[in-house]
């Protein structure tokens, strides 16, 4: 995407913004700004550009109304630590299954007051344009599925339209709408005679308006969500998964949804990992070292302090152990800040990658779904695509696929009550279905890095035993296992109380971190 396009974000910020609850209206309504009835296709591109960037969970100091701290609070200190991708070198509550009201509030507020209104403004600006609406429907599913999979019932049907009280929708109903939107989007884009959507072409930092690539992205999302509901509604899951694959999903890295960054819309992961004191986790060290995984050197840096006993080694910090160990970089591995994650303005953002789709097809094949191929082939292709995505030398791929080693005890493994590595399967395709499912879970976990929203959701869905327990916990009901959900905001209870209380009823359990979401039945 051309850099000059980003200048139009200032225009998008002037559009009338309505929030989720009453306090959002007061904060975001400006009588001097444009209103939705003033929107037309001349503003479709700017509003779409805003919806894309805000919808990824990233934010920029260069753009009005937000900054990159939103990513740090909403992603790095939640799903990033819940999935054991990274861990802070300080005693953060969420790293020990605790709750911090301000941290989770930041992500909720920015989503409903910035991302959602931008999406709705784009719908208004493109009214009557079927292909543009189909792409927006796909992006709507992407944006909202991440949030409902964090909280459960959320404002959805009436989100962004304002009012003194906004109802929450049941997650089952939200998912039903997701599938309808994705199915219809595929039908619309399949029937289109256009190769690209003109109003989006110069403003689309993911696909430049490419109809076929957006179509594959939508179908790949449908496959992802089909797996998500496979335990609670196996019949519907099979139907949606088979339909998605038959319609056409991502097959190559060229199909992957990657957001092209600019100096103004940059990759927040890079800077948050640099400046907020995050380190490689013991789980990542255990798996990557055990597999002799070439991605370890691409993702992480060696301990560089010559006085450290771990000099020139890769060392991970156990999750939940931030206050127990030396918290300086001298004894722990940071992200690779020399090459891969050196510059936030040049490292593009992974939205959804083709390797995941192949792992999803591999799992579907093991379930007996028609994925147009066999599980082993999809599994191995998923690994190959992930290695190629990260520019691993081609000569290293075959040896990795045939590897027979398993995970190792990490450097600080003695801090665990049982240091035995949870990952006890090799890379080479196993002979039993239980081991094959675990292999798929492990390789998808690696292939998703650093997209932690999906990684955390998939860990909860599969209940795959691939992570060490936390060293400490701040929540006795959850213990040292994987956090199940984020709780609702105190501000929502005070300004939208009746709706939140109804949401708790829809949730089917207490509003705490140990209540399973609708699809998480195992």
From TrEMBL:
It holds the Pfam family SusD-like. InterPro entries: SusD-like, TPR-like_helical_dom_sf. This is SusD/RagB family nutrient-binding outer membrane lipoprotein. It comes from the Bacteria. SUPFAM superfamilies: TPR-like (SSF48452).
